[in-house]
Amino acid sequence: MAGTFITFEGPDGAGKTSVLAALMPKLQAHLAKPVRLTREPGGAKLSEAIRELILDPANTEMDARTEALLYAASRRQHLAEVIRPALEAGEVVICDRFVDSSVAYQGAGRQIGEDAVLAMNQFATEGLTPVRTLYLDVPSQVGLARIEAHRQDRQYDRLDRESIAFHQRVRGAYLRLAEREPERIVTIDATKPLAQVVSDCLGTLHTVLSASWLA
User: Mind listing the domains of the chain with CATH numbers?
Assistant: First the structure.
């Protein structure tokens, strides 16, 4: 495909939303190609409806495998309706979460198996893999403290309410993924001030997108 697929990952409280909000205008100013920001779960009408089911705190009875399947279904629709057409049109697609999130949150966090969740999502995505993934890393205690401090300013969903042990399993899975795929996954220290994190991300993206970077 003519476009470039890049994803952002991180545990809860890593600051992905703030980083992407600051980063996107810079990318749009520096790139000759169109840049599209999208998110998971969500990004398309049907996928957003599934997002509401997954994250609704009222859905306490949701089985872990049901949750994993819903994420994969949302991802499939998002890919078919938004991501793949944009890549075929030559756009740079920046996605807030992708398959790595399911491996970390459902595979490790819910303890249903990282390999099993990866296989499910390989089917859903037909093997589409980002050319680069920026993983914003924070210790679990730091991320949860940030969530609590900004609880009134953000959605407080089912995953935010999980135990520290759950979030530590999620982070552990992310670190294993980064160790296993160092050419794809770039780890960014997200405990630094926002401006520094944005600068570090921009430097990584410049390397990936140098052919499209305006002088």
Answer: 4-208 (3.40.50.300)
